[in-house]
Amino acid sequence: IDGRGNTIFSNHIPALTNEDNQNTISFDHLLFSHPGLFNFIASSYVCEWEWLLTKIPASSSICVAVNWNPANGQSEQTIPFPFGEGASTISLHGRTIDIIHPPIIPRGILHAKLLLLQFPDFLRVVISSSNLTQQDWYALGQEIWFQDFPRAASASPQNLGQFGLDLSDFCQNLLLRDPLRPDAPIIDLLSSYQLSSAVVELVARVPGVYEANTLCKYGLMRLWDLENERKQRSIGAQEQEEINIAYQTSAIGAIAEWWASDFIACASGVDIDPHTYPHSRLPNLPLRLLRIHFPSRQLINRMMEESNLALGSITVRYYDQHDFCKRLGILYDLVGEEEDSVCQRLPIHSKIMIGTSIDSNNILWLFSGSHNFTEPSWGSVRRNPKSGQFQQIIYNYELGVYINP
Asked: Across residues 88-99, what is the average pLDDT?
């Protein structure tokens, strides 16, 4: 397994057979495929500290941003000394750790799963759907992207490229820092590596309200910008191309029809200029273009009866109280009609989206990351009544990669 960044892997599940574990990668491989890991920087919704500290070499520095509750300063896995927004260096299980609590807004959470693994000669960037827990990495089905970036001859902003600039911006918003140089901005570390060689585009989501020149910086509108640019390059501005969007998710939010329509418009790169488009909402595209793949109740029940894998961690969430996706015929069982699928035996926590051509069925793009099919994950687009411009509202920290094969 190399680190060229052109593959999305599943995680290795020890309880599955070798045949089922094809095209997989383990947490241990990411940490130990090369010697000398000396700096571990990460973000995760939840972190199982005791397990994590058994994995990271004793000589490595550690900095982890986690989701937290502003009401009491605690994360899901409690720490001895709760604290508010910002950074705290604490002693935990005999190790010194920098823990980061980023700014959190109402309805929002830190849900991004990022690893920055610093080795002597390269930086490994990992973006996945997996939290820093033993169950997530060893018992739940996840998807993982990573790329290794060689150390540059000298530190320079020119080493970053757009990927590096986007990654640096996201880390700064998370308040992530280099535990070896906590007073230096994170961009100082990142600019020491050739991040301009990235083979994917980064799509981050940072809580806030964005319009005008920041409208397409994050979330849904960032996805629109990338897909619209791809279509302009591949088929020209005068042609229209319909695509099918298949989305496998482990959570479905309280979906409104207008939001589902906007989601399809953005994932399709609909041909408009959002800064001059005169209508109050984005163009309506047929909802049939979207297929949501999600485990059925029957599958979950069968899995709980027959499988020994992660029975306490089947983490599917279904908040679509009005069954919008089901009523409109865009909700599909995760397994389909395969008789012997890994998905029938393995709780799936991955989130991945594929855009295919309606005409040729060719894969046009892939999207992989922490995002679920919810408005807080992706953001919402609406007209600002004061400025008259489109604005995007985002609640969560999320992170994913857009791959154009």
From this structure: 94
